[in-house]
Every structure is written in C-alpha cells, then in structure tokens.
Amino acid sequence: xxxxxxxxxxxxxxxxxxxxxxxxxxxxxxxxxxxxxxxxxxxxxxxxxxxxxxxxxxxxxxxxxxxxxxxxxxxxxxxxxxxxxxxxxxxxxxxxxxxxxxxxxxxxxxxxxxxxxxxxxxxxxxx
Length: 127
Known about the structure:
Elements: H1 2-58, H2 63-80, H3 82-94, H4 97-110, H5 116-126
Helix pairs in contact: 2-3
C-alpha cells in the first residue's frame, strides 16, 4: 500500500497545484470583473450628478436666452439686409479654425450639449 500511496501522492501533488492555480486565476479574474463593475457604476453616478447640477444651474441661467438671441440675429437680418448677413458669414468663415471651434464649443456648452467632438468630426468631413 505504501507504493500506491507514494505514486498517488506523486501524481496528486502537481494536480492539486494545477487546480489551486486555476482557482487563483479565476478569483483574480472575478476580482478584476468586480472592480470594472464598480468603476462603471462610479462613472455613471458621477455623470448623473453632473447632469443634475447642470439642470439645477440652468434654472437660473441666462445662457440659453443669449444663445437663442445670438443665433436669431442672422436669421432676422436675412429679412432686413441679406448682404450684411452674407458678408458676416464670409468673414466668420475666414476666421482661424481654432476660433470657429472655440466659438462652437462655447455655444454648445451654454446649452448643455456634450457632443462637441462628434460635431468637429462632422464639420471636418464636410469641408
């Protein structure tokens, strides 16, 4: 029986280590997955809090009205003096690209639109 015990012990020791290694790897993968879930949850929570703050500050803000007036001026002037509007847009189009993007970012931020980078790509494709 001693030989059988020795042989089984010799075979079972590496097998036991292999199984323990697999278990440790699985535990590590589970821990990583759990941490990813926690991070996603935290990110979503922060985004929700940020959007709530934006809504709260929007109740007392005049930015939306400013942007509305600013974008209404060229439309109204088209009925009064279309040449002035066309000249203005020509001059704006000749302005530096950094200014155009900055202006667009400020206007979108004023009304809470967060897709600025996607719009930049859209404008670059249309040129």
